[in-house]
């Protein structure tokens, strides 16, 4: 998806990308897991593969040793249309947090409860199975 710095941020904040998730993609750390989740959604939308990689915890099942392949698949995924992000709830904690969301991508809706942990900063770990 083509997004410029003046486009509306894909995370749905209503702000311009350059005034929103852009700062995280350029190195500042989100203060909580909700900001991280939103900025990861935006990173997928703009194809900021390195941001996805550095915010995925090494013990995550989504962490891939082959960075080259991983970057390729993120870039491929970023061609999708990231229409909307809805936050359903956010359970904050000291070391662990959860964000449940609905992502509207192309013609499907993806619902996930993501788990995040805090080490030196917040990291994405995995999707929680609620069944
Ligand atoms: Zn944003």
Describe this structure in words.
The structure is a single chain. With 131 residues, the chain is α+β, with helices and mostly antiparallel strands. The protein has a single domain (17-127), classed as Nuclear Transport Factor 2, Chain: A, CATH 3.10.450. Helix content is 27%, strand content 28%. The protein has 4 helices and 4 strands, in the order H-H-H-H-E-E-E-E. It has helices at 22-25, 33-46, 49-54, 67-77, and strands at 82-91, 96-105, 108-118, 122-127. A 4-stranded antiparallel beta sheet has the order 1-2-3-4, with helices on one face. It is globular and about 35 Å long. The mean pLDDT is 96.
SSE blueprint and pairings:
Layout: H1 22-25, H2 33-46, H3 49-54, H4 67-77, E1 82-91, E2 96-105, E3 108-118, E4 122-127
Antiparallel strand pairs: 1-2, 2-3, 3-4
Bound molecules: zinc ion (ZN).
Zinc ion is lined by residues 9, 11, 13, 20-21, 38, 42.
User: Percent range for helical residues?
Assistant: 25-40%
Sheet of most strands? 4 strands, antiparallel
Q: What's the count of strands? A: 4
Give me the CATH architecture, please: Roll
Contiguous low-pLDDT stretches (5 residues minimum) are none
Number of helices: 4
CATH class label: Alpha Beta
Strand content: 25-35%
CATH topology category name? Nuclear Transport Factor 2, Chain: A
Average pLDDT level: 96
The helix/strand class is: alpha+beta
Nearest-angstrom radius of gyration? Answer: 14 Å
| Strand arrangement across the biggest beta sheet | 1-2-3-4
Order of helices and strands: HHHHEEEE
Query: What is the 3D form?
Result: globular
Distance between the termini: 33 Å
Q: Number of folding domains?
A: 1
Distinct small-molecule ligands in the complex: zinc ion
């Amino acid at each position: 998806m083509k997004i410029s710095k003046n486009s509306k941020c894909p995370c749905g904040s209503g702000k311009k990308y350059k005034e929103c998730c852009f700062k995280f993609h350029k190195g500042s750390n989100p203060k909580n897991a909700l900001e991280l989740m939103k900025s990861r959604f935006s990173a997928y939308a703009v194809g900021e593969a390195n941001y996805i990689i550095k915010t995925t915890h090494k013990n995550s099942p989504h962490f891939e040793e082959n960075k080259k392949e991983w970057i390729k698949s993120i870039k491929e995924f970023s061609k999708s249309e990231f229409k909307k992000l809805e936050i359903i709830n956010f359970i904050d904690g000291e070391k662990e947090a959860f964000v449940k969301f609905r992502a509207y991508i192309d013609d499907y809706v993806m619902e996930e409860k993501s788990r995040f942990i805090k080490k030196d900063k917040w990291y994405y770990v995995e999707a929680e199975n609620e069944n």
